[in-house]
Design brief:
The protein is built from eight helices and two strands. By secondary structure, it is mainly alpha-helical. The longest helix is centred in the middle third of the chain and has 17 residues. The protein starts with 10 loop residues before the first helix and ends in a 9-residue tail after the last helix.
Length: 156
């Protein structure tokens, strides 16, 4: 669902990681959530209502990743393959989860935007032009979030 980028640990953190994972003592493992609790949370997130407005915004963002569906030269010049329908699904589910964690009754377009990088970055394939010019998938996502309006196009 998500591609989360993590940076390298600092030196002290890395030393601690090596100490904990290379010694004779096995690390302690404790259960934080049971399988039933995880399933209950998943079910709860799916029950969070979402407006058509937010769903349509998520779909417009995903469709804008596809060179044939995007009217901007930026995407047509730098993307060879855009995200599919699962990205739209995960944008909505991620937005629902974020809204629930924040205590909101329903997600807003800001929730979709907040999960967009994690959902889209591994679903967009940039081309040689992008590689040659140092354009990353995050650059593509930034462009899309800047150019796709949260308000639906008039007349549609």
């Amino acid at each position: 669902m998500f591609s989360i980028r993590l940076d390298y640990p600092n030196e002290d953190q890395e030393v601690e990681i090596v100490r904990r994972t290379t010694g004779a003592e096995p690390g302690e493992v404790s259960v934080k959530l049971s399988a039933e609790q995880i399933q209950a949370f998943q079910s709860l997130v799916r029950k969070v209502p979402v407006s058509d407005y937010v769903t349509e915004y998520a779909v417009r963002i995903v469709r804008a990743t596809r060179p044939k569906d995007n009217p901007t030269d930026f995407v047509r010049n730098y993307v060879s393959w855009g995200a599919g329908p699962r990205a739209s699904q995960f944008l909505v589910l991620g937005a629902k989860a974020r809204a629930a964690l924040r205590g909101e009754p329903t997600p807003a377009h800001e929730d979709v935007r907040a999960v967009a990088y994690a959902v889209l970055r591994h679903r967009i394939v940039t081309n040689f032009n992008a590689d040659a010019e140092g354009i990353s998938t995050d650059n593509v996502i930034s462009h899309i979030l800047e150019t796709v309006p949260a308000d639906p196009p008039s007349g549609g």
